[in-house]
Design goal:
Layout (H helix, E strand, L loop, with lengths): L4 E3 L13 E8 L7 H12 L3 E6 L1 H4 L8 E5 L2 E6 L4 E6 L5 E8 L5 H14 L2 E12 L9 E4 L3 H6 L3 E2 L8 H10 L4 E10 L8 H15 L6 H19 L2 H17 L19 H12 L5
Parallel strand pairs: 2-7, 2-8, 8-11, 9-10
Antiparallel strand pairs: 1-3, 3-6, 4-5, 6-7, 9-11
Helix pairs in contact: 1-6, 3-5, 6-7
Amino acid sequence: MSDFYKINPAFQDVLPELEKSLLVVMLSGWIDASAASASAMEILITETAAKPLLTFDADTFIDYRARRPTMELRDGVNTKLTWSAPELLLGNDSNGRPVLLLTGPEPDNRWQKFTEIVSQLAVALDVRRMLGIGAYPIATPHTRAVQVSCSSPSREIVATLPYIKSSVDVPAGMEAALEHAFASRSIGAIGLWAQVPHYVASMPYPAASAALLEAVCESGDIVIDTSNVRQQAALQRERLDQLVLANPEHSSMLTQLELAFDESHSGNGTLTTGFGGNPLPNGDELAAELEQFLRQHPAD
């Protein structure tokens, strides 16, 4: 038992004994274009049949003025309040390997204390690797495979990864802080970021979720079923193609994005586009029409 978290009674208030578990982190509150990583986490929860293992103390880590509890009001009766807090779930992949999922809101307070507690729990739960997931918008075409960039405090780990290695200074999220906390305890930690076409960043983009899940399976050595999200990605690709081809200006912009993408990814060296890359074309008009198109086709 701890003052900072409460173990689910289903586990009899005791941490389970795990062997070589994987921890995947997705905390809401920082950048997540198209909510791609949130969708990927939902799929992970479903496919691993994950159940709540413990909940972190909201009074310690949450600013209620920023994240107010939700009141359930029924016929004037205040039936309950739902408090938002980070939680740790436990499930298993298709091969029965333990998978821990850290999800919920990013803490508002005491970040260093939170990273200390989570990394301590990781040691107790025999975590072999931590994977953080996220997504950001960039000038990239939807007609090309979703690229994934990576981060890690370990140069040795980065050197083994087949993902984009960026050089940039950006505000950090909790996932980045956890990377360093895990590295200090000799647990491999990796951040995985999907690149989302900027003109679809305000709507769901299942192709990015599928790319993140593939990276999690590859980097975390687990197996889960991603067929459903890949089918959704294929259907959306068809709809986007139809919409873009119907407008010469949009087709021209897409062609420019494709040329820029192919040029920047044509070499054999390490990809370094990451958060930067080519100048961002104006995609506001296309994004607005895409949103209208999707609203007109709710059945899809």
